[in-house]
């Protein structure tokens, strides 16, 4: 079985990063190519107003990260909320990462807001709280690269918390077999994270920046999370 995934890009990379990293869609395609299950991808940048044709059908829709706030009032965010609610009501599978993780929580009755913990950057570790059949290869913890100052502070009704940390209590959740979301960025590489940290050093502040740079010595399990996502879509 080959899973067809629609990637809804909710950002355009900073100009200094585009030449090397292209786009979030490109980064996700490179990520999924490193896991063993079959998948094909079609990317649409919703910031620019691009969406699939109504006749197109996918096995899942993935909402990427973004420098925008999930609770923002931009016109494109409002249009995306309407589109995702229609997809949810249609029974489609939805995958959310960072901004997408927060937007899906908001859309379905939870809360996302600026976190009192401040910026999370670099490699963070999460505890797995629920072992699901599609979470193969299984593990009790996993590391992901992160870059966020917003968090989901209340899960939607009926959501099951899958992973947590002291810094980010609602780090991953699912809603039935339809919605699966992660705060961390499985598509990030250490190189991209380092370049982003260097680019935003002043905005992060020296303490956060240095801690983020030091954390890059740790491995991260983005490819494993990508396999979980594909298995979730196949379940």
UniProtKB/TrEMBL annotation:
Presence of the UniProt keyword Metal-binding in the record: no
GO cellular component: cytosol
Organism, as annotated: Ventosimonas gracilis
One Pfam match: GATase
CDD domains from the UniProt entry: GATase1_1
Residues annotated as domain Glutamine amidotransferase: 91-192
Protein name, per record: Amidotransferase
Record keywords, A-Z: Transferase
Source organism, top-level taxon: Bacteria
Gene Ontology MF annotations: transferase activity
PROSITE patterns assigned to the protein according to its UniProt record, in alphabetical order: GATASE_TYPE_1
């Amino acid at each position: 079985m080959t899973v067809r995934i629609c990637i809804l890009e909710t950002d355009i990379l900073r100009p200094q990063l585009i030449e090397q990293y292209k786009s979030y869609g490109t980064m996700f395609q490179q990520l999924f190519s490193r896991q063993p299950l079959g998948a094909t991808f079609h990317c649409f940048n919703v910031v620019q107003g691009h969406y699939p044709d109504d006749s197109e059908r996918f096995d899942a829709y993935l909402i990427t990260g973004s420098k925008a706030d999930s609770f923002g009032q931009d016109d494109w965010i409002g249009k995306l909320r309407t589109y995702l609610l229609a997809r949810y009501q249609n029974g489609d599978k939805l995958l959310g990462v960072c901004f997408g993780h927060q937007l899906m929580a908001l859309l379905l009755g939870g809360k996302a807001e600026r976190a009192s913990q401040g910026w999370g950057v670099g490699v963070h570790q999460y505890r797995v709280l629920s072992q699901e059949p599609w979470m193969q290869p299984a593990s009790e913890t996993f590391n992901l690269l992160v870059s966020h100052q917003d968090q989901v502070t209340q899960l939607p009704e009926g959501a099951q918390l899958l992973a947590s940390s002291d810094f980010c209590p609602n780090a991953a959740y699912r809603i039935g077999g339809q919605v699966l979301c992660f705060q961390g960025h499985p598509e990030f590489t250490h190189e991209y994270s380092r370049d982003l940290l260097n680019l935003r050093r002043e905005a992060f502040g020296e303490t956060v920046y240095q801690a983020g740079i030091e954390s890059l010595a740790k491995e991260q399990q983005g490819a494993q999370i990508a396999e979980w996502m594909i298995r979730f879509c196949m379940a």
